[in-house]
Amino acid sequence: MKKLFVAAILFLTMASVCRANVNKHLNPSYDSEKSTAIPVVVNDRYYAQDLIRDQWYGQDRSGLILKDMTGQSQMILNGGLVTQNPDTDTVNISSGLLYVPYRVRVPDNFAFLPPTVTTRDVELIRLEIPNISSLNVILQLFPAAIDGSVNYVKVEYTEVGTATRTYALKLGTLQYEVSPYYILTIDTRTPTAYQAVLGTVISTGTHAPMTLSYSNRVSSYGIIIPPDSIPDYSITTNKIANNSITAIKIGSNVITHSQIAPQTITTAEIGDRQISSSKIIENSVSVILSSYNYSNGGAGVYGSVILSTTITTDGSPVLLLASLGISVDTALLDGIDVLTGISRDDNTNVPGCGSEYRTDFIGGGTWNHTVTIPIICTEVPPAGTYTYKLRAGIYSGKGTFINWGPGVFLSVIELKR
Fold this sequence. Notes:
about 5% helix; 4-stranded antiparallel beta sheet
C-alpha cells in the first residue's frame, strides 16, 4: 500500500544541481567460443553494481521516450486534484498518476576500490498517489503560510524499503521496494525540478474559504502540439469523450484568435441563434443590415403608399424610422384627421407604428401649413424577406388629396449588438 512519507529534509540542493541522465550501461557480451557461455561480466566483482546502474539506465530510457512523445519534463496524467473540506483548514487530494524526474546515485569509475559514484537523473519515473483525506494545511511538518501567501502543493518520487530479506552470506537484512513512495509538501518554497505541483492554496486559517488554483499544474493534456503533428481531419468526435469539454475545463482567455487558424470556424460550425449578445465584444459587429428609401414629395389619396423598402432578416428585432411632411389641398370647414402608419407586406399593420394628426377649423378656413410627422417603432418579425410600406391619408374631413414632402424617408434596421 502506498504511504505518505513526509521527509525531514527537503533536498534543498536539487534545484541548483545540473541535471544529467544515466548515460552508461553494461555491454552484456558473451564468450563466443562457448555455446553455453554466460555473459563475461558475471564473474566480475562489480557485476551487481553494474546491474544497479543498468536498472536506472532502463528507467531513464523509458522516461526519455515519454518526454520525446510529449515534450514535457514532468506531467500529471490524471487525478491529484486538491479540494478544501468546507469550513475546515484541511484539504483532500484525489488519487492520481504522475511522471516526474528522479535523482539517483550510480557507479561511475571502477578504477578505484570501491568504485566512485555519481548522481544522475532518471528523466521520468511513474508515480501513483492514493486518495488523501483531511490533510491539515496548517499542521504540516513544513508549515504552510496562513497569511495569504501562495502555498504550493508538491509531490515527488522517493524510495523507502517496505520489505526485507536476510543476507545470504552475512548478518543483516536487505530492503525491497513493494510500491512507489512519495513526499508530499505544502509550503511557499518554489518547487524544484523534481516536484510536480498539484495546485496552489491560499489560506488565512480560522476555517475560512481557501483560494485553490490549478494554473501551475503540468498536464500531459495541455501539451503544445505543433501544427505539422496533426494530420488534416484527424481530430474527430470519436477522439473526444462525450461531455468531456466543459466550461470549467477551459481557463479564462485561454482560447484566443491566435490559437485558431484563419477560416477555421465557419457558419457551419455554429448553430443557429447560438451566439448571444453577451458573447460579442462591443463594436465588433461593424455591418448593420438595413434598408432605406427616400422621396422629395408627391400626392395621393387616403391609404396611399408613400414609400416602401424591402429587407431580409434572421428573426432579430427591426427598428422602423420614418418622417414625412403633410398638407391638404382643400378648404377646411370642420377640421380633418390625417393618419400615418407602416405596414409589413400588404396585410400586416405594425402595431404602434402610426400616428394621427388632427386639426379643427370652426367656421371654415383654408389650411396652408405643412406638418412634419415622425414615426419610430420596433417589431420582431419571423425570419424572412419583407416589404415595409409607409402609408398616409385623410381619415375624416373635406380633404381629398394629401400632399407630402420634401424630405420623406423610410428606414428599416435589423438590430444587432
